[in-house]
Amino acid sequence: MERFARAHNVSWYPELTRSSGDRRGIVRVDDGKPFRTGGNTVRPAYTCPLGASEWGRDEGNPDLPG
């Protein structure tokens, strides 16, 4: 799952659609608090790729300070 915000701070909850035989439903993935994504138009971006053990600079925007 990837979510992006250019110029605003956004709060959101992911929902998982599930099915098993005749049973179907939607499960909200949260611990009572929303996930947050912040705009990074003039701020550096950081990523934690799948399988990585730490966060690092997003080299897609190398000219941004930070």
Can you walk through the features of this model?
The chain is an all-beta fold and 66 residues long. The chain has a domain at 1-41. The chain has strands spanning 9-12, 15-20, 23-28, 35-38, 46-47, 56-57. It is elongated, with a radius of gyration of 16 Å. It starts with 8 loop residues before the first strand and ends in a 9-residue tail after the last strand. Residues 47-66 are annotated as: Disordered.
Topology:
Elements: E1 9-12, E2 15-20, E3 23-28, E4 35-38, E5 46-47, E6 56-57
Antiparallel strand pairs: 1-4, 2-3, 5-6
Region (Disordered): 47-66
Give a short summary of the structure.
By secondary structure, the protein is mainly β. It has no helices and 6 strands.
Net shape: elongated
Mean pLDDT: 82
Structural class: mainly beta
The percentage helix is under 10%
How far from one another are the termini? 25 Å
Count every beta strand, where a strand is a DSSP E run of 2 or more residues: 6
Major sheet: 2 strands, antiparallel
Helix-strand sequence: EEEEEE
Q: What is the spatial order of strands in the main beta sheet?
A: 1-4
**Which parts are unreliable, with pLDDT below 50 for 5 consecutive residues or more?**
none
Provide tags for this entry.
66 residues; mainly beta; two-stranded antiparallel sheet; two-stranded antiparallel ribbon
